[in-house]
Design brief:
single chain; mainly beta; Methylamine Dehydrogenase, Chain H; 4-stranded antiparallel beta sheet; 32 strands; about 0% helix; WD40/YVTN_repeat-like_dom_sf
Length: about 375
């Protein structure tokens, strides 16, 4: 969904919930510099390989990588010759890499979401740590890309918005060679999302966990949905209690679930809300399931808009949610949430946690942060 991705949302000083009692839970910022000084690109793409190897991507064609835990960053900005033409002339395309999925310090796939103009939506891959990037996909017609998810380093799916917001199904592309080539997934069933689309807010509106694919949508007066599939072709859906604005045109409401994360094949979380200015906190912005996504229950805690959620591997019911209005920690699998300390760190779009209680986050104006949850 295009509107969900513009960097137009002002920051809020409001945080929801009381700060966590453990004062050691503090975000440590990792500023990125290039030859021109501090990087100001907005980073919605985030891929954490280990606590030392992290990739981020975002606006201004930007891709950066650290291999030393953030002490230094490699500028892997993608240079290209992409252009678009309109009635006034031909201009260079400035790509916005809303998602990046990396498998090592060498192999990564970056997705440019696009804005509906020619050549703006595209997929790029590297096998040499970003020294060389190769474009592997541009849609035949301008369309908006939302997110990537991977079953393994070879097989992945790319989610795109419906070609027709009124009655179209969500579109899927598929790769079996690690992102070198893509093809349309045909013959899908059950992926109809009339009036809805996905939110490319953090690269996590599609996920693969424990043998199953998941997709979250929103953007219409109907409830936001969570789709699930064993094979990526035949889908079933379930409603959440988060609904859109009935006075907003189909496909353009800011309300919706933005991110989905499952701990295993039964226990999952979705987060979202409205990125619109002044949208209130809501218990419907976060929901949890204990039966594989068949039913979703809203959180007992009211949160402001959250664009990403991640489980802490090996930490049971611990999960972290992040958004431009703050970050939160759940200790009970999403039933209740508390604000993490250092709530001035409210610039994050994406979050990903790894073993050891370590989470990385990326966001606006070059923000990258790290926290260890104890």
């Amino acid at each position: 969904m295009q509107l969900s991705l513009a960097l137009l949302i002002p920051l809020f000083s409001l945080s929801c919930g009381s700060p966590t009692k453990n004062s050691s839970n503090k975000w440590q910022t990792k500023p990125i510099q290039n030859a021109n000084g501090l990087v100001t690109a907005g980073f919605r793409g985030l891929s954490v390989i280990s606590d030392r190897i992290v990739w981020v991507s975002g606006t201004k064609n930007s891709v950066y990588q650290t291999t030393d835990g953030g002490a230094s960053w490699n500028d892997l900005t993608i240079t290209h010759k992409e252009t678009f033409t309109n009635e006034t002339g031909t201009y260079p395309v400035i790509l916005d890499f809303r998602d990046i999925e990396a498998f090592s310090a060498h192999h990564a796939v970056a997705m440019a979401a696009g804005d509906g103009s020619e050549n703006a939506s595209s997929v790029w891959h590297t096998k040499d740590g970003g020294k060389h990037w190769h474009k592997s996909r541009t849609p035949k017609n301008p369309i908006f890309y939302d997110s990537l998810a991977w079953e393994n380093k070879h097989h992945g799916l790319l989610l795109q918005d419906p070609a027709n917001a009124t009655d179209g199904s969500m579109g899927l592309l598929e790769t079996h060679d690690g992102g070198k080539s893509w093809r349309e997934v045909t013959g899908t069933t059950g992926l109809e999302a009339k009036g809805q689309a996905a939110f490319a807010a953090s690269g996590t509106c599609i996920a693969f966990v424990a043998g199953r694919w998941y997709i979250v949508t929103g953007g219409s007066p109907d409830p936001s949905r969570v789709f699930r599939s064993w094979n990526g072709r035949n889908w079933k859906d379930a409603n959440t209690s988060l609904v859109g604005d009935p006075d907003v045109e189909l496909g353009y409401s800011g309300y919706g679930m933005n991110s989905v994360a499952f701990r295993d094949h039964q226990v999952g979380l979705v987060v979202g809300g409205s990125f619109s200015t002044g949208a209130p906190a809501s218990k419907d912005n976060v929901a949890y399931t204990r039966n594989g996504g068949v039913n979703w229950t809203p959180s007992s805690s009211a949160l402001l808009y959250r664009s990403a959620v991640s489980w802490l591997p090996g930490k049971g019911k611990l999960a972290v949610a992040a958004g431009q209005t703050g970050t939160n920690l759940s200790r009970d699998g999403g039933v209740t949430w508390e604000a993490l300390t250092d709530e001035q760190h409210n610039e994050f779009f994406a979050v990903q946690c790894i073993k050891g209680g370590i989470c990385w986050a990326s966001g606006r104006k070059g923000a990258v942060g790290r926290i260890r949850i104890k």
